[in-house]
Each structure stands twice: as structure tokens, then as C-alpha cells.
Design goal:
Layout (H helix, E strand, L loop, with lengths): L10 H30 L2 H14 L5 H12 L3 H14 L4 H13 L3 H18 L6 H13 L4 H15 L4 H13 L3 H14 L4 H11 L4 H14 L4 H13 L3 H14 L4 H13 L3 H11 L7 H13 L3 H14 L4 H13 L3 H14 L4 H13 L2 E6 L2 E6 H25 L8 E6 L2 H9 L9 E3 L3 E5 L11 H18 L5 H15 L9 H7 L12 H4 L4 H22 L1 H12 L4 H8 L3 H18 L13 H5 L2 H13 L3 H13 L10 H12 L2 H14 L4 H13 L3 H12 L7 H12 L3 H12 L6 H14 L3 H14 L4 H14 L5
Parallel strand pairs: 2-3, 3-5
Antiparallel strand pairs: 1-2, 4-5
Helix pairs in contact: 1-2, 1-3, 2-3, 3-4, 3-5, 4-5, 5-6, 7-8, 7-9, 8-9, 9-10, 9-11, 10-11, 11-12, 12-13, 13-14, 13-15, 14-15, 15-16, 15-17, 17-18, 17-19, 18-19, 19-20, 20-21, 22-24, 24-25, 25-28, 26-31, 28-29, 29-30, 33-34, 34-35, 35-36, 36-37, 37-38, 38-39, 39-40, 40-41, 41-42, ...
Length: 838
């Protein structure tokens, strides 16, 4: 055997190896530097660096890909095409480069060539799939199959999950997973994946952008913070700039949105998304010719881009322009019949326009074609549930409810809505062109899915899209339901004003009128001044009328959102007090004619700048008049101030009640009452004072306090329960009947209200009303069904309804055969009708 002798390399070989190592390190540093420039938004610098490497002919596909990406971001589409055509000859088997090339070809309006490029990707994969098992190739293949609308779950499993399992640090695989999940409405998976991505690379602006999309439907504050984080990393990251513009449009802050869009266009003057957003703003401003020009600009580089019409339509639908939005979706589908996003959005638009047949058919089509589409799947599940609902119709109102609930209080719902239609349509001079559909859901998740597409939406009691109203029933609200009558009146008012304005009204005005009309119908409905609201009205940062819709987009807390409703209603009250109800009606007419809100106010009242100033003075006066003699300082300066300080007295009262020092608590609370500070807030001064009187056995003062509380509170079951008992004990049957009906307006699914209403109506000699309440009570699983049947039979006998009374008595005797009073009444009926008793 011969031994193999390894000689040390000669100097020339060592020098060559060293040069190769240095070159490799330099290339790696160059790539890192270029990537950092790209992530920070220094696109032109990255272009210079990448161009130099491409011209040098460095054998690395990353350089031409990076150069093309920078050129696309900067709108240099023809330059990107030239680079791609040269690069693909060299890297013909690169899936990620070909996928990028498809984007380049579309940007240059080479639609047929882009389709052929996509086909070429499939051919390559078919011919030698095993060769493309690298992480980057698998992610690219996954993105390709997403474009082809292949089964999303398989894409996740076969491509993205596979990469993430093999290399948990592969950022692009996590981002691709999040993108896919967001597109299918699976925001939980998206958020979880992006949390990992953020740990992998805190410097990538794409993470914050995608997080904002994932949180948009559930946490507006988080979504806003995520955009800010993304733009702090890259102030020139167009997707985040335009997403911020999207949020500004939702808040009707059009000037802010335009500024953000201009920043995006400085980066890429050809950005179709930016031009599409400008088309949205133009439409909302009533500038329809400009809208057409902006749409044309958006389509100028890719004439068959379905995303343009889809985006414009979706944003218009976000502003309740469903008919126009639906037309845009139809245009998107004409450009690309396989564009599922447009088909789904069209189904939502049609369902909100009341076109159920086609709407549900399209939703079913999307669900079948795309099983991973969470929103479409939720809708189809809901569709099956809706088939069990009962429909109650009359005079252009169609109420759809759970069958059992409809049987219990459906007639009350219909009566209220018909009253609302008569009152509000006459007042606002509106004749609805089609029936108003009202859907009431006993399960909150069903309401949320119908309304928002996904579970969530906690805090929303009802939503009006125009012709379609969705609402939560008391069954979905736990132990403290809201007044369903005030909710439905509020939402029906939306239906009327949206009809009058052709859905062209800002949110603040729509909500303000509805809350205002609630209070006109019943002073206990809607909202009224409270100590907290007083303080917010006097805040230096009180939102002016011209920016009021922004208060609904990203409120600092649930309290701030509730204040936005009160604030808006106070503006409406001011406009009516100052300029009259006719001016308000004219304002709505001008909105319907297509004028912007500020222009419409300027024509019918005064310039918006003057309205801002006038309302500010009005609001300050309203707040100052509330508890004028009280001390409102958060930190009173001395003992005299503290003795009259509302906040100190409220805090002291709560502590004294906790200590059960009723006399001292009464003294503090009566001091607050002497300032005229009465409000119905839960746990507020009036509630505490009623409790103190109750504990002291002072029933007269307790009753009077509860009566005042009832005049301001629309949903206090405890207050009404106590007032019902007072009225019955004192034989005040008219009051008892009134309180009972108010109890039912909060909780129609429990017997308390019907028991009191039946008893009171009987005592008042109103057997028709009594039997109606008793019949409803019989549907609520009464404790003594035989006794209730006997009561019903007695009342029916008084009305001369002998056959109905007889049937009820027979039911009672079936349960209790020895029920003597039932036997006697049955004999009496037989005597009256000359029948033989069985």
C-alpha cells in the first residue's frame, strides 16, 4: 500500500483561497447593506448598489431581484422589465424571480406575457419539483399557488409550514403565512405568526403593516400603533402610508388621507393603490369626474387589474355606498372572473342591500371554491341558522327573528317599527323605495358574523346598512340587556336618514340624528349630560364638528366612544335649536345630491368654520349650566371647596355606603342632588341615593328618587322592578302597567313584566290587554301553568271568548284534574252557551 501524502498548499493556492473567502465576505456584507437600505426605505441608494453588482455580473440572483424590487417600489417599471428580461435568461429556473417577473410584466401592461410566465412556473414545477426544495423556492411556490386560488390549507401545509418547521427563523415563510391568513379572514393565525416574525426581525416594516391588517377588525388602537411602528422603521414604506390613509378615509379625515397618499406617490407616481384611494375620496367628496380620472390613472399601467375596482368599491361600501360598491365589484369581476375577493365583497354588498337571493348564492360560491375563507364559511353557517327564523311583515317592514322570540314579543317589535316608520318618514319626508329588513339575533356571534363577517363586535347592539338592520336580542346580552326598543328606534332612524341622503352622510351626523330622535321619542332613551361628559365638553381638546367622525374611528376607551354618540347628538340639537328642523332636512337633501358635509352645512346653515366656533360656545354653555353652583375642580383648593366638590362628594358617598354609614352617605348625596346634578349612570349619585333611602326604610323618598331615575334611564331593570312593586302595593295600576311595559322593553324573555302587565290591565278593566300579557306569559314556562291557564280562561270569559276559555280550562284540568275553580268556570261557560259539560 502506498500512503497518501498531503502537501501544504503553495503560496499561489493559498492566495487564491484567501481572495475567494474575502470576496465571499464582501458579497455577504454588500447584500446585508443593500437589504438594510431597502428595509429603511433608501430605495435609490439600494438601486445604485444593486445596479453596480448586476453590471459587474456577480453570479447571484439576489442582486437582480433586489434591483427589480427597488425599481418596482419606485415605479420604474420599464427599467425593471429590462433587468428582468436579462436576469431570467441567466436564472431561468428561479421560481422567486419568475414570480417577481410576473409582477413586472403586469406593471408594464404585458398581461398575456404575465400569464405565460405564470404557466412557465407551473411547467417548471411539474418537470422537476424535487429540485425546488429550498426554503425560498418553497415559499415562492406557495405564493404562486395562492395566486392560482389553490386550496389555501394545502398551501400552508405543503409549503409554508414545511419551511417554518425546517427553519423556524425563515422570516419570509412567516410573512407569507400571515398574508394568506389575513386574505382568508383568519386573523388569529395571522397574529400568532406575526408575533414570531416580529421576534425574528424587529427592523422589517412589513411586520407592522401586516399586524395592522390582522388587528384592524378587533383592536383599532393596536392596528394604529402597528402602522406607526412600521413607518418609524421605514417612513417611505408605501403599503403602510396607504393603510394609514385608509384609516384616515374611514375617519373622514380626507385632507390627512390626501397628504399620506401624496407621500406614497412621491415614492411611486404609478402606485395604482394610491390612485384608487384618490378615486374613493373624490367620490365621497361628490367629485365624480375626478373619481373617473383617478380610476383611469390607477389602471394606466395594468389595464386589467381587478384590484383597482375592488378596492374602490370596498372602501365605498365601508362608507355605506353599497349600490355603488356593488357596481365596482361587478366591474372587477368582468376584468377577472376568478377574482374571489370581488365576488365575496359583492355578496356582502347585496346582502346589505337586501338582495338576499343573489347575495347568499355568491357567498355559497365563494365558500365552496375557497374552503379556507373563514368569513365566507361563517356566513354560510349563519345562512343555515337564518332558515329557522320567522318573518313578520307589515306595511314595508320585514322583521326576521328566532321563532320562539317572535312568538313571545315579535308583535311588539313590529308595532314599534311601524310607529317609527310613520313618525320618522313623515318628519324627514322619506318614502322608502323597498321594505326595511330587521334581523334580530339571539346569539351575539351570529349578529357579529352577519354584521362584520367575523365573531367579535362586542358592544354593538345594532347596525343599520340602509335597507337592512341587524340587532342583538336581549337573549344575547346576559343579565343587563339594553332597551331593545330604543336600539331599534335608533337603527330605524338610520334607515330613514340613509335613504334620504342615498347613504351619503358622515357617521357623526347619522349617529347624532339617531340619538337625538331617541330622546324625542322617550326622554329616558339616548344619552344625557353626566359629570364625566361635562368635563369632556369643557376639555380644550374637544373635537370640532368638522372632524367629529374621527371620534368614532379610534376612541381612547369605550367611554370616549359613548361620548362620541352624545357629542354628536348635542351637535344635532344645537343645529336644530339654532337653524331649525327645516334646515336639518335641507342639509340631508344636499348630502343626497352629492355635496360634501362641509359644503352642505355651508349652503344650508353657515360655513363649517363658523359652525365649529358656534357649537364650541354652545357646548361650553351646556356644560357650565350643569351643576353651576357646584365645585368641579379635580383637586379642590381648600375645605370650603371640598365641601361642595362633586368628585369629592361622589367618592365620599361610595366609601360611606361601603361602610354602611347611611346617614352620612345620605347627607353627601343630598348635597350633590341640591346642585341639580341628576343623571342615570350606573353606580351614579341617584342610584346610590335610592339605595340609601331603601336601607333607611324611607320608602317615599326611595320611590321619588327611583321615579326620577326612571325618567333618565332606559335600561335599569332593578329600578323598574322596585317601582312595579310600589305601584302594585299602592293600587296605582296605570303606573304599574307603564312600568311593566318599560320592563318588557328591556327584557321581554322573562315573566316579570308580563305578570305585572296582566295584573294591572285586569285591575284597570282592560281584559284585551290583560289576556295578551297572560297569553305571552304562558309561553315562558310558568311555574303554575294550570293556574295561569285558569287566569287566561277567566279573562277570555269576560271578553265573551267562550270557546277559547273552554280550551284553556280543559288544559288546566288536564294538568290538575281536581281544580275546583276551573270546574265551576267550565260549568258557567256551559250555561252561557247551553252546552253539555263533558
Amino acid at each position: 500500500m502506498f500512503a497518501v501524502i498531503r502537501r501544504p498548499p503553495g503560496r499561489a493556492v493559498r492566495d487564491l483561497l484567501l481572495l475567494l473567502m474575502m470576496t465571499s465576505a464582501m458579497v455577504a456584507r454588500g447584500e446585508e447593506e443593500a437589504d438594510e437600505l431597502y428595509k429603511r426605505g433608501q430605495y435609490d441608494e439600494a438601486i445604485v448598489l444593486a445596479s453596480a453588482e448586476v453590471e459587474r455580473g456577480v453570479w447571484n440572483e439576489k442582486w437582480p431581484k433586489l434591483l427589480i424590487q427597488c425599481q418596482l417600489v419606485r415605479g420604474k417599471y420599464s427599467d425593471a422589465l429590462a433587468v428582468y428580461q436579462e436576469a431570467i435568461n441567466r436564472y431561468s429556473q428561479s421560481l422567486s424571480l419568475r414570480l417577481l417577473g410576473r409582477e413586472v410584466l403586469l406593471a408594464n401592461n404585458l398581461i398575456a406575457e404575465a400569464e405565460r410566465e405564470a404557466d412557465q412556473i407551473f411547467t417548471i414545477l411539474q418537470r422537476s419539483a424535487s429540485r425546488f426544495a429550498s426554503a425560498d423556492s418553497l415559499v415562492a411556490a406557495g405564493r404562486y399557488f395562492v395566486l392560482r386560488d389553490e386550496d389555501a390549507r394545502q398551501v400552508l401545509t405543503l409549503f409554508y409550514d414545511r419551511v417554518r418547521q425546517a427553519d423556524p427563523t425563515h422570516l419570509d415563510a412567516h410573512l407569507a403565512t400571515a398574508e394568506l391568513a389575513i386574505s382568508k379572514g383568519d386573523f388569529q393565525v395571522a397574529s400568532q405568526t406575526l408575533a414570531i416574525a416580529e421576534k425574528l426581525d424587529k427592523s422589517d416594516p412589513r411586520v407592522g403593516y401586516l399586524q395592522s391588517l390582522a388587528w384592524a377588525s378587533s383592536d383599532s388602537a393596536k392596528a394604529g400603533s402597528a402602522i406607526e411602528q412600521s413607518l418609524s422603521l421605514n417612513p417611505h414604506f408605501a403599503p403602510s402610508l396607504l393603510l394609514a390613509a385608509d384609516r384616515a378615509i374611514d375617519a373622514e379625515q380626507f385632507d390627512k388621507a390626501k397628504d399620506l397618499i401624496r407621500q406614497a406617490l412621491k415614492i411611486n407616481v404609478n402606485d395604482w393603490t394610491a390612485w384608487a384611494y384618490l378615486a374613493v375620496i373624490a367620490h365621497l367628496d361628490g367629485k365624480y369626474e375626478i373619481e373617473s380620472l383617478m380610476r383611469a390613472a390607477a389602471l394606466s399601467n395594468w389595464s386589467a387589474n381587478p384590484g383597482v375596482d375592488h378596492l374602490i368599491g370596498r372602501k365605498l361600501s365601508d362608507h355605506y355606498r353599497f349600490a355603488v360598491g356593488a357596481q365596482y365589484q361587478r366591474q372587477a369581476i368582468e376584468l377577472d372572473s376568478s377574482f374571489t375577493a370581488a365576488t365575496y365583497q359583492l355578496s356582502q354588498d347585496l346582502l346589505r342591500l337586501g338582495d338576499d337571493k343573489i347575495g347568499w348564492e355568491l357567498a355559497s360560491r365563494v365558500s365552496q371554491a375557497d374552503p379556507y375563507n373563514v368569513v365566507a364559511h361563517n356566513l354560510m353557517t349563519l345562512s343555515d341558522r337564518l332558515k329557522t327564523f320567522t318573518s313578520i311583515q307589515a306595511n314595508g317592514v320585514d322583521v326576521r327573528m328566532d321563532a320562539r322570540e317572535a312568538e313571545i314579543y315579535g308583535d311588539r317589535v313590529l308595532d314599534l317599527l311601524l310607529e317609527a316608520k310613520r313618525t320618522l318618514c313623515e318628519k324627514y319626508q322619506v318614502a322608502p323605495h323597498a321594505p326595511i329588513i330587521v334581523e334580530i339575533y339571539p346569539e351575539q356571534k351570529d349578529f357579529a358574523i352577519r354584521t362584520f363577517g367575523l365573531p367579535g363586535g362586542a358592544g354593538f347592539l345594532g347596525v343599520c346598512f340602509g335597507r337592512v338592520i341587524t340587532a342583538n336580542s336581549p337573549a344575547s346580552q346576559g343579565n343587563t340587556p339594553s332597551n331593545w326598543q330604543s336600539v331599534l328606534w335608533h337603527e330605524f332612524c338610520h334607515a330613514v336618514t340613509l335613504e334620504k341622503t342615498k347613504n351619503r352622510m358622515p357617521r357623526w351626523l347619522s349617529e347624532g340624528i339617531s340619538v337625538y330622535e331617541e330622546q324625542l321619542r322617550d326622554p329616558s332613551w339616548g344619552q344625557s349630560m353626566t359629570p364625566t361628559y361635562r368635563e369632556m365638553l369643557l376639555d380644550e381638546d374637544l373635537t370640532p364638528v368638522s372632524q367629529l367622525s374621527s371620534s368614532f374611528l379610534n376612541p381612547a376607551s369605550p367611554l370616549h366612544l359613548q361620548f362620541a354618540y352624545y357629542h354628536s347628538s348635542l351637535v344635532v340639537q344645537f343645529l336644530v335649536d339654532k337653524y331649525g328642523a327645516d334646515a336639518l332636512n335641507q342639509l340631508l337633501d344636499e348630502l343626497g345630491n352629492g355635496l360634501s358635509i362641509n359644503d352642505a352645512i355651508g349652503i344650508t346653515m353657515r360655513p363649517i368654520e363658523m359652525i365649529d366656533d358656534q357649537f364650541l360656545a354652545y357646548a361650553r354653555q351646556q356644560a357650565s349650566d350643569y351643576g353651576r353652583d357646584a365645585n368641579w375642580a379635580r383637586e379642590p383648593s381648600d375645605e370650603a371647596d371640598q365641601a361642595n366638590n362633586v368628585w369629592s362628594l361622589l367618592k365620599e358617598s361610595a366609601e360611606l355606603i361601603k361602610a354602611k354609614d347611611w346617614d352620612a352617605a345620605r347627607q353627601s348625596l343630598e348635597k350633590i342632588e341640591s346642585f341639580g346634578i341628576q343623571h342615570s349612570e350606573r353606580g351614579g349619585a341617584m342610584e346610590m341615593l335610592a339605595k340609601v333611602y331603601h336601607e333607611q326604610g324611607d320608602e317615599e323618598r326611595e320611590r321619588k328618587t327611583l321615579q326620577r331615575l326612571n325618567q333618565q334611564s332606559s335600561d335599569s331593570l332593578a329600578t323598574l322592578t322596585r317601582l312595579i312593586q310600589f305601584a302594585i302595593d299602592d293600587g296605582q295600576w296605570e303606573d304599574a302597567l307603564d312600568y311593566a311595559n318599560k320592563w318588557i322593553a328591556i327584557q321581554p324573555l322573562l315573566p316579570t313584566g308580563y305578570e305585572a302587565a296582566g295584573k294591572a290591565a285586569g285591575e284597570l278593566g282592560e281584559p284585551d290587554s290583560a289576556v295578551k300579557s297572560l297569553l305571552t306569559l304562558a309561553k315562558l314556562e310558568p311555574i303554575d301553568p294550570a293556574g295561569l291557564d285558569f287566569q287566561i280562561a277567566q279573562t277570555q270569559f269576560q271578553l265573551g271568548q267562550f270557546q277559547e276559555a273552554k280550551q284553556r280550562l280543559l288544559q288546566a284540568l288536564e294538568i290538575a284534574p281536581r281544580y275546583r275553580d276551573a270546574h265551576r268556570l267550565l260549568i258557567e261557560i256551559a250555561d252561557q252557551t247551553e252546552e253539555i259539560v263533558p
